[in-house]
Design a protein that fits this description.
The complex is a heterotrimer of chains A (about 300), B (about 350) and C (about 550).
Chain A lengths: L1 H28 L12 H10 L6 H13 L15 H36 L4 H15 L2 H15 L12 H32 L2 H8 L4 H17 L3 H19 L4 H10 L3 H29 L1 H9 L1
Helix pairs in contact in A: 1-12, 4-5, 4-7, 4-10, 5-7, 6-7, 6-10, 7-9, 7-10, 10-11, 10-12, 11-12, 12-13
Chain B lengths: L1 H7 L31 H11 L1 H23 L30 E2 L2 E2 H4 L18 H37 L1 H16 L2 H11 L4 H27 L3 H8 L4 H37 L11 H9 L7 H28 L6
Antiparallel strand pairs in B: 1-2
Chain C lengths: L1 H25 L2 H5 L8 H6 L1 H9 L3 H9 L4 E2 L17 H5 L7 H15 L5 E7 L4 H17 L2 E7 L1 H9 L5 E6 L7 H4 L16 H11 L7 H17 L3 E13 L3 E2 L15 E2 L5 E6 L14 H10 L4 E3 L5 E3 L2 E6 L5 E6 L13 H12 L9 H5 L5 H5 L10 E5 L2 E5 L7 H4 L10 H7 L16 E7 L3 E6 L6 H4 L5 E6 L3 H10 L4 E3 L2 H7 L5 E14 L6
Parallel strand pairs in C: 2-3, 2-4, 8-17
Antiparallel strand pairs in C: 1-5, 4-19, 5-18, 5-19, 6-7, 9-10, 11-12, 12-14, 13-14, 15-16, 16-17
Amino acid sequence: MSKYILKRVLISILTLSAIIFVLFLMLDFMPGSPFNDEKLTAAQKALLYTKYGLDKPFFVRFLKYLTAMLKGDLGNSYVLNKNKAVADMLKGPLGVSIRVGALGMLLGTVIGLGLGIAAALKHNSWVDTLCSVVSILGVSVPAYVFALLLAYFVGFKLGWIPILYNSKKVMASFVGPMIALAMSPMANVSRFTRAEMIDVLGSDYILLVQAKGVRQKDLIMKHALRNTLIPIITIMGPILVNLLTGSMVVEKVFGVPGIGTMMVTAIQSNDYNVTIACAFVYSAMYIVMMLIIDIMYGIIDPRIRVAKEGS
Amino acid sequence: MSDTYEKHVPIIENDYDPEDFVFVQENVRLKDKVYKQTSFLRDVWNNFSKNKGAVIGLIIISVIILMAIIGPMISGRTYYTQDLANQGLPPRIPGLEKIGIMNGYEYGRNIYAEKGLDNVYYWFGTDTLGRDLFTRVWEGTRISLFIAFVAVIIDIIIGMSYGLISGYFGGKVDMVMQRFVEILNGIPTLVLVTLLGLVLPPGMSSIIFALMITGWIGMSRISRAEVLKLKEAEFILASRTLGAKSFAIIFKDILPNIFGQLIIMAMFSVPSAIFTEAYLSFMGLGIPAPAASLGTLISDGYKSLTVHPYMIFSAIIVLALLMLSFNLFADGLRDAFDPNQKH
Amino acid sequence: MNYRKTLAAALALAMLAGCSGGTSAASTPASSAAEPASTVDVSAQYKNLNFRKALSLSIDRNQIAELVLKDGSIAAEGFIPKDFAYGPDGKDYRETAGNLIEYDVAKAKELLEEAKKELGVDNFSVELLYETDSEAPGKVCAAIQQMWQDNLGINVTLVSKTKKERLALMNALTYEIGLTRWGPDYADPQTYLDLFYSHSSGYNNYYFNDEYDALLDKAETGEDAADPEKRWADMVAAEKVIIDDMGLIPVFQNGSAMLINPAVSGIEFHNAGVDSYREVTVNKDDKTLNVAINADLNTMDHHVATDGGSFIMQSLCIGGLAKLDENAQPVEDLAESWEISDDGLEYTFHLRKDAKWSNGTPLTANDFVFAWRRLDDPELQSEYAFILDTIHVKNAKACQEGELPLEELGVKAVDDNTFVVTLDIPCGFALGLMAFPSFFPLNEEFFNAHKDTYAQSLDDLLYIGPYVFSNWEENHEYTFTKNPNYWDAANQAKYADEIVFTFVSEAQSAALSYQQGNTDVVTLTGDLVDQYKSDPGFVTRLQGYAWRLNLNQMIKE
């Protein structure tokens, strides 16, 4: 097991360095400068490039960035928060984004599970239909449209949630973005749980348990649910990807000061260091979560572990 | 007590006759019944057509594809002509307007009457530049479908070859190829695609490229897994013994056996490609104006969602229908190809 | 082997389909139907005056302003926008220069036919470049595309890029026609005219017109420079020259549609310079002003800032020698009086004696000397350093380029309360610029104690303006409360107690928040105007930004 984890961690580190390289390369192709392209002359811009070390060859900059990064230095911002250390800039937004994202994921997963189980138990009833409708809506309405509808109906028409993020009422402010983000996990989890549960309920061992006269409640809670849950861990990865994608646009609608908003602004203004840092943080979160999911799966289902160690 | 005792003694009645134990078909000439031979595809179709949802999905897809082809022509308007005087008109459909929906009213006012357009009908309304949304939606559907199909076909070709080669050769080749996939897969698509959007020139080929850059990984996984399963099979061994070259084995013997799997995967990929395209448009990497895709229509409509909700709804509904029907269709297809698989 | 070939062919086909699909979708609908035009050197068509004129004459600018933009934007009447620069006679520049732009489709067609004959072609195709960072340019270009196609029958391909990319393409001359804008830094037509004046310092453009250059030579550095009336007349003449030559095609002057709570008054919008929230009255119980901003605060260091949002917040905290009144005229602020020498080359400012920094240090002339030198410091490389040279401060350019030590910059502190600026050439708009944050003072002692962290957190800021920065939530909210040590605190008492700027990039959310009463000031997008134009708080205002089309006469591949 530890050998497997070590191998995965090594690959993750390799992946992250590859990501930084790709990001660096792409930003190099990005036209325009981080500086005022409208009012500065080419000569003035050249001086600014020299000042910030942007005139150096690609590999020199890349290696310099990597070595600084190992010491926790992510460079300074060129535009967003001029000359401020990017590492300091990230702290606040990162916390907000992680909290909103985690809440959205939790809410979506819990409701999705409930809905999926209910739909499987009452196969072909109205609950089942509701489950299908929710899963279709969740995957076909873009998160930003859903977020704005939420802001309009629940925030404006009903006045139940704040339309704009308010740092004095953090929990209330999280409700809107959280629900908007929960839609996609909810859809995916409910759909998957339903299918899994129907499958499990039809299996021989459940028939056996039923034959033994176990009560319906115990049958579901103790036997069916546990076996349904294991495969659901496998779809957490893709769900996470959707969540990250969603956060970028949902934060914009509710004015949440998260890392998604920051990255969009940074990209638009060619703030290279902030863009790299944000993209890196996204990738790192993603990779770490995938790692955790894989390890968890290995622990829960011994077959995976054996198979992977064998290969 | 005696009553109870009596009940415990079952009275067995012998109701079998000796005739029950005689061979019944002794004098009948038995013959193997020959069922009509069905091809594999016939089987698939039989299984598929039993699945109600899948058939509905197929019908919806066909209708949408049909509309994507003829829709832009039947309204008599083009998708690019602006009529600034007719901007922001809500949907109005003859017939339907009599029953009170799509009657040209918005906020309780008949916008058409206010502008003096008595016999003018924009079925899905007009956008902020006065372009006909009906034509634009179908034009957009056509472009979105085209993008999705091309991206998915390229995904299949790249992913299939990669997976086949990686799985068949195994060993070091497989190791290197799989590490590459793992690294590429570690980059969140959203980050990659957003940045690509800035570097690439806007246009259809860029969008297809962005969609395909990570899209093929799923395909390669499936084909690799199948190859690993198949390459130990007897018929492959036979082929190898007869002197077939590796590439012939891969593409002639193995490929046809995994094609079904890939088609199913492709059908699941089409809706997600359409959806990703919508996200790309929102992030600014869209089809250049005046052309439109479902994604650009949604991101345009979004800008006035709280003011003129109808501008986004027609595109959202088509998108939702496409997502729904492709998923239903793919589900049905999967069951039909392999009835043993769980749903 | 067959399979491999088929596979390769299929792959190539798919790629081809992708690429060709891309190009055909990107080109205009008309291009597919149009007859194949005999090819010309693309630059040649833009060198043709009749062609350039035809393009301009066929744009219905009123329709663009009123039906496409709707945000209070107006049709351009010339290169220089309206309501931002006033002549020596006190009249608006545009009033003197008149309307130089016409919309005349018949004439446009005629000129286009002539252009076709001159160039020997049957049709034209053009590429129109615009930016996607905001919505307006895309909509305007879509409208222009339609007008050129309908009125002139030429094929227009739209090219959309991010603003950064658009500027890069235009600077590299790899574009055909580009929609671009200019925001004035100061209230004088020169800020616009310099864009095409090839003798201006750091000329960034590729348009060369001797007649135009000669007129501006006279106005800026030559014989008319010291004579405001003649200088004004030269500039009016220069504008006419460049419009007659169609060196650029003016399109519209930017407006801004806003929702401002009727209980709020006193926000001063300046078409050139920085909007002021210093004297805002709020008739609400809590006297708090909530402003939704659509661009984030970038820095509180006024020598580093380049964006309007940051400048607005800096103006609350610090202040200049002068400030602009509601008519955009400079009036006393940190200087209680000033004198200008007869030759217009020496400005003597007498600073207020009661002005103190928030740490108790009194304001001295050295705070200005130090600040201006820092602005010009080649070490700092401020992106606004050019503005010292714009008002012709002595040696500004040489010091900025490191050719002269900073001590040679034309500023000095005669005593604690007297600050003297020496110019090379007289400058009529220099006083107005004293309200611009780049010219604000900076306390040397405080700065040296903070150096690298200066202005990066609340602890690293010093105030001398009416407000202090009291809560800094990055990416989100910026709260300013009254400065108890403000020299004019008694007078300031009647204005807003607290000003809160909240960064919201989604205009629809901001507008909903306004309707709920949680936000007092919101900027609307054009799409939302119809919905809110009957709201009592709906206002439109003209901005100093002017949008134009640049035509590239020297296309590089």
